Amino acid sequence: MQMLQDEMRNLRQGKLSALETIYLETKDAVFSLCLSYMRNYLLAEDMMQDTYINVRKYIAHYREDSNPKGWINTIAKNLCLNELKRRKREQPLSEDMQIASNYTLKAKDESGVIQLALTILKQSEAKIVMMHAVGDIPLKEVAELVKKPYATVRWQYRNALDKLKKEMEKRELI
Length: 174
Known about the structure:
With 174 residues, the chain is mainly α. It is built from nine helices and no strands. The chain has a single domain (2-170), classed as RNA polymerase sigma factor, region 2, helix turn helix motif (Rna Polymerase Sigma Factor, Chain: A), CATH 1.10.1740.10.
């Protein structure tokens, strides 16, 4: 955590090499957060890239006493929510594009567990699972990001895992 704080300070001072370290330390959590919102691998990658562009752009607004991962995750979350609002106003993807994006997700996730989670879980449950299990974000931070009590998030996480386990057993994946 201290190393990440130091790199945030270095980035604020104009040392762009610090952004690489910040990216390497936070990319998994940011990607899983974006994937949980966007439910599409390619869109999640785009949102992740936009997140780090915004980290660089708004580094002057970062408070040194705050949690760097939390600040970056908040940027990612806000970008995803804004993109979802924008997309809601537009026409939905054509069937061909949707099939292509599903294929890409399956190609990137050989086990299919992520795709299964995105398919069978409610969006709120999928978000929690993606952030914690895939992105390795502690459940307390997940609770802050989704603005729910920790106990509720912990309960939803366990519930979602039970759903996934039952579905995987049903499909004979485990």
